């Protein structure tokens, strides 16, 4: 059985919305987009590169997949993240997407997220990683399908925005297996389900 690891960039008050750009996700009137890049440093880059060097496939919700497609699908910048993202098998979970042809090596999982991902997880294959896709992560967490979290906890609060665990989350215990602190105060914490 495959395992699922969710990597989430999060503020101290649990916000995961609009990390990268002011226009990334303005839903609900969110006006703090682009809060993350000023915290990037060589330590974070190295740790994220280590994660991407592990074999496995990627899992996306529709919105994040579409956003990543715009940013990465046609990039030719020589960035090692670009090469990894474009080469990886990418599963996109959606009830509304017609196809996943916009980004190479993408496979559409049509239907309810919990059902389609549980079926994918049970199949033989590489482990699955989720980057972002907060709605998908919440659904899969509630169904007990997330095995590990890598949380990049940023030293700021935003006071509003979509949170990692908006709404009910079942009692689930995790063990801290590793942590790294960046030069800009981001704590990268690795948790495994007990």
From TrEMBL:
Highest taxon in the source lineage: Bacteria
MF terms (GO), sorted A to Z: 5-amino-6-(5-phosphoribosylamino)uracil reductase activity
Boundaries of every Bacterial bifunctional deaminase-reductase C-terminal domain copy: 3-187
GO annotation, biological process: riboflavin biosynthetic process
InterPro entries per the UniProt record, alphabetical: DHFR-like_dom_sf, RibDG_C, Riboflavin_Biosynth_HTPR
Protein name (Swiss-Prot/TrEMBL): Deaminase
Organism: Actinoallomurus iriomotensis
Higher taxonomy: Bacteria, Bacillati, Actinomycetota, Actinomycetes, Streptosporangiales
């Amino acid at each position: 059985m495959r395992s699922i690891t969710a990597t989430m960039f999060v503020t101290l008050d649990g916000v995961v919305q609009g990390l990268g750009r002011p226009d990334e996700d303005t839903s609900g009137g969110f006006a703090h987009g682009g809060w993350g890049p000023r915290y990037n440093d060589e330590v974070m880059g190295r740790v994220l590169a280590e994660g991407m060097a592990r074999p496995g496939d990627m899992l996306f919700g529709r919105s994040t997949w579409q956003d990543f497609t715009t940013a990465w699908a046609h990039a030719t910048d020589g960035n090692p993240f670009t090469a990894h993202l474009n080469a990886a098998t990418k599963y996109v979970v959606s009830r509304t997407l017609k196809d996943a042809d916009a980004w190479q090596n993408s496979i559409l999982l049509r239907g309810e997220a919990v059902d389609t991902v549980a079926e994918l997880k049970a199949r033989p294959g590489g482990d699955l990683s989720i980057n972002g896709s907060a709605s998908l992560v919440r659904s899969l967490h509630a169904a007990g399908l997330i095995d590990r979290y890598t949380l990049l906890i940023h030293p700021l609060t935003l006071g509003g925005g979509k949170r990692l665990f908006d709404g009910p989350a079942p009692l689930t215990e995790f063990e801290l297996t590793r942590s790294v602190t960046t030069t800009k105060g981001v704590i990268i914490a690795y948790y495994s389900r007990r």
